[in-house]
DNA sequence: AAGCCATCCAACCGCACTTTG
DNA sequence: CCAAAGTGCGGTTGGATGGCT
């Protein structure tokens, strides 16, 4: 008994979303209690399948999203969580408020993987790439990632083997969200049942757990402003108060720079 | 300037899991 | 309890972009 497709793809649009479509989806979701994703495109006047709408919203349009490359501390957390959880991107994303599983997955595949390999670490097992290496006295990552250990001595010291099979799964409530990450959520103006009901994504749930005020959208919708959004990331700016120079190709600038409509919505 | 190649990331696909009747 | 519908998740793809020759 096969599953039915999520939608009859006939006459449905695929590929990149246009500004107009984004506008429709945002307007609909903000102004309606989203009942079920399958109904959203029809009600919002979109020629998309519900799944596509959900993805677009959760990965790109959600106002609580943080854009740009992951900061070093976020990267560190991702590596740590990956060593415990494996490719459970949504679970990892749940510990990084404002980040999506897709974003983390992409970042892992394009940046972190490479970085780890360069350091002689198998990104899959988090163990040294060379098997002839005598077993390290402590975490291999600790040996090859001294700067991480320096930054956070507790990091890795608690994760001896880094074999995903050997480490028990961490329950969401057991994952400690670093203060910086938690703080990242705080500045966002908020509180509405609308958004939290809109998306059941783990990151939102997690955000609530760490006292993230639920989202509310100011009438002027100034939160869409690039300045607000970029300045909204205390993690990438922590410490020296600088923005990650590699952020220039980030989706943030891509979408916010080019879409002035978002500032005049509603 | 043009062509090629590598990289990045948004979006798609299909399976798994959860919910509902 | 079961089947169908709805949703979540992880893997993969393909277009856009930038760098190099």
From TrEMBL:
GO terms, biological process: carboxylic acid biosynthetic process; regulation of DNA-templated transcription
PROSITE patterns: HTH_MYB (PS51294), MYB_LIKE (PS50090)
Listed GO CC annotations: nucleus
Entry keyword Transcription: yes
Domain HTH myb-type: 9-61, 62-116
Protein location: Nucleus
Myb-like domain segment(s): 9-61, 62-112
Gene Ontology molecular function: transcription cis-regulatory region binding
Main localization of the protein described in the UniProt heading: nucleus
Listed Pfam families: Myb_DNA-binding (PF00249)
InterPro entries the UniProt entry points to: Homeodomain-like_sf, Myb_dom, Myb_TF_plants, SANT/Myb
Highest taxon of source: Eukaryota
Record keywords, A-Z: DNA-binding, Nucleus, Repeat, Transcription, Transcription regulation
CDD domains found in the cross-reference section: SANT
Protein name: Protein ODORANT1
Organism: Platanthera zijinensis
Gene: ODO1
């Amino acid at each position: 008994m096969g599953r039915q497709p999520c939608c009859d793809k006939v006459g449905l649009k695929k590929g990149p979303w246009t500004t107009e479509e984004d506008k429709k989806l945002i307007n609909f979701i903000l102004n309606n209690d989203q009942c079920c994703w399958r109904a959203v495109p029809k009600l919002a006047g979109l020629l998309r399948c519900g799944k596509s709408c959900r993805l677009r919203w959760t990965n790109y349009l959600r106002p609580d999203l943080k854009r740009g490359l992951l900061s070093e501390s976020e990267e560190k957390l991702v590596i740590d969580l990956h060593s415990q959880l494996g490719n459970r991107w949504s679970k990892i994303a749940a510990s990084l408020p404002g980040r999506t599983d897709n974003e983390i997955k992409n970042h892992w595949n394009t940046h972190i993987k490479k970085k780890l390999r360069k350091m002689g670490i198998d990104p899959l097992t988090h163990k040294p790439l060379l098997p002839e290496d005598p077993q390290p006295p402590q975490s291999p990552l600790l040996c090859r990632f001294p700067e991480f250990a320096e930054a956070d001595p507790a990091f890795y010291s608690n994760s001896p083997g880094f074999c995903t099979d050997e480490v028990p799964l961490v329950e969401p409530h057991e994952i400690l969200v670093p203060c910086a990450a938690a703080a990242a959520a705080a500045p966002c103006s908020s509180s509405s049942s609308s958004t939290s009901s809109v998306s059941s994504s783990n990151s939102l749930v997690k955000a609530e757990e760490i006292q993230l005020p639920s989202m509310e959208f100011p009438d002027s919708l100034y939160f869409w402003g690039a300045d607000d959004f970029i300045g909204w990331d205390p993690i990438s700016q922590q410490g020296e108060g600088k923005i990650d120079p590699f952020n220039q190709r980030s989706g943030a600038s891509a979408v916010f720079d080019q879409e002035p409509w978002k500032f005049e919505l509603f």
